[in-house]
Amino acid sequence: MPKQATPAVVWVHGDSLSPTNPALLANPGAPAVWVWDEELLAQWQISRKRIVFIYECLLELPVAIRRGKVVPEIRQFMQEHAAQTIVTTASPSPRFRAICQELSGSFTLEILPMPALIPPQKHLDLRRFSRYWKVAEKVIYPR
Amino acid sequence: MRREFASRADLIAYVTQVFPGATGAVSETVGGRTVALEKLAALQPDRYGHSRNELEGAVTRLSPYIRHGVLTLAEVRDHLQAQGYAWAVVEPLLRQLAWRDYWQQLYEQWGDGIWDDREPYKTGFTAADYADELPQDIINGTTSLDCMDHFSRELQTTGYLHNHARLWLAAYIIHWRRVKWQAGARWFLSHLLDGDPASNQLSWQWVASTFSVKPYYFNQENLARFSRRKWCATCPHAAQTCPFRGSYEQLHKQLFPHAEASHSSRRLGTRR
Ligand SMILES: Cc1cc2nc3c(=O)[nH]c(=O)nc-3n(C[C@H](O)[C@H](O)[C@H](O)COP(=O)(O)OP(=O)(O)OC[C@H]3O[C@@H](n4cnc5c(N)ncnc54)[C@H](O)[C@@H]3O)c2cc1C
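# flavin-adenine dinucleotide complex -> structure
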């Protein structure tokens, strides 16, 4: 028997502001949310032009726009939609990781990978770009 | 928060009201997938390779869109492939896209450690020799060096600088003014529409030499050439008092008097 699907919510963050991001694509019509992370805006002293640029990106996405502390805002959005599952896209940011850690305590969290520029490699030497490029140039443009 | 706006001016007024802490100019660069796809369609990869180091060269200006995932690196590559470009044509552009992927992969490993010096400076100085704060005349655009003052204003009004201008301004801040790269990186991050922790902090480290084998620096001839003398032609400092005048060897001695003399210290912007 198929598992009873709990309604999913898509969390969109600043590394995947495309209407075709994997989380939005996989969940058409699902409620989606963006949260302006006020702590981060203050910490990085994000200027007005950056906020306007990001806002314009958001206006082309099917998301509710919130502001404040990220985890409590998402929690509340989940309650409003009686949802248990959060779907989002991967990011290397340590702040993203910390938020995911917190959310996964109370919800089912699915983190979808972003399309990669080069396929995952067994041995990728990152000590200098030249070493990385030696490997990358062979696989970056399949001919 | 609101999603309906009568105009861009309406959006800007709203942002100004709800984010009072966020100050300064608004860029003419418009966000969103629609504009990003227009820019993608207008790429000129055949002109990119030989002109990308020139301020007026055929660079893509895709960075703010890529930074925020409005476009992915893979999409840009796939677009080039769909157009049928040969490897030799697209190799220079792919290499630059790969720089971003490379920085992102390091960010994945290092996390907030990208704010720490990854290696010692190779300038003959230690981190303690560099100032913690950015000098006010750089922020205000009042150094009296026409090129640097222009870059400062451009950064703060448009949120974009050409890669070469970023290299020159960063090198000026770190090596001529002897300021910690972190101070410059924080300033860039606040203003660049493409401001990205990995690409930004690690590029600053690359210029500083805390993540490369030697410091990046330049001379007047290099700046004049790739800017087509845009500032040097009228700058009162150009003939005599420009701090960038001289050969790479001379500048190396002046800037890094305690560093080992390096015969291969000549660094051209074309390196990356
Ligand atoms: C001090 C300093 C700070 C920088 N800070 C940032 C930053 O915060 N965000 C950022 O995206 N880039 C940064 N860069 C890299 C580079 O300057 C910009 O990506 C580039 O100038 C953006 O313009 P473009 O889109 O026209 O680039 P193009 O030359 O058209 O390149 C195409 C794309 O490749 C990527 N790319 C190109 N060069 C680099 C590079 N050296 N490193 C990483 N990615 C690259 C960008 O995504 C860019 O959009 C920095 C460079 C320096 C020297």
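# post-check
Residues 111 and 198 of chain B are 9 Å apart (CA to CA).
The domain at 116-255 of chain B is CATH 1.10.579.10 (DNA Cyclobutane Dipyrimidine Photolyase, subunit A; domain 3).
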